[in-house]
Specification:
This is ECF transporter S component. It is a single chain. By secondary structure, this protein is mainly alpha-helical. It has a single domain (37-196), classed as Arp2/3 complex 21 kDa subunit ARPC3 (Orthogonal Bundle), CATH 1.10.1760. It has eight helices and two strands, in the order H-E-E-H-H-H-H-H-H-H. The chain has helices spanning 3-24, 41-51, 53-73, 77-85, 87-112, 122-146, 150-159, 164-198, and strands spanning 29-32, 35-38. A two-stranded antiparallel ribbon has the order 1-2. Helix 1 packs parallel to helix 3 (53-73) and helix 2 packs across helix 5 (87-112). The chain is globular, with a radius of gyration of 17 Å. The two termini are 20 Å apart.
Amino acid sequence: MNMKNTKTLTRVALLVAIELVMKMVGLGSVPVGPLYMSFLTLPIAVGAITMGPAVGALLGGVFGAVSFYDAITGASAMTGALFQVSPVNTFILCVGMRVLMGLCCGLIFSGLKRFDKPGTWSYIVSAMSAPFLNTVFFMGWIVLAFYGCDYVQNLVSVKGAANPFMFVVLLVGVQGVAEFLVSGILGGIVARAVAKFVK
């Protein structure tokens, strides 16, 4: 194994460790109603931007595995209830959607950096795509796979949502915007700093 591969593996392992520590100490997921305001997209964005889409997918998978564990154990009220409805669709929701999010974040950066040679805005925009896509993919799969189940229909009724789109907007609410801004801006700043450091 050459020096470059060793450095890459070390950086990936460090980001995985950061994800797990953030989760364990409560910094990764802040409960807000039935959902969690998740900042675990931050290390995923940093990895996807600085090391590519495959690393983004891998880190997304780590986030997904932690989320699926919460579903199995009932630590998350929402995914725990959805696991009782369909374990397979809950696995796709927790793991599949997060792998896709990490992959897409890396692909978005790969595309944007061609138009941003100085690296002034592509880092922030790409990092913001991580929490945005996490919400879109996660809530999109809930609507596609679980919208008709009693648990989700109860949430629809409580929120007074007239349709699936309004359900997503009302459920995600302010915490979605906060997650988007905090994770996105911080992720972009950190990713740019890391990219300069490892050059």
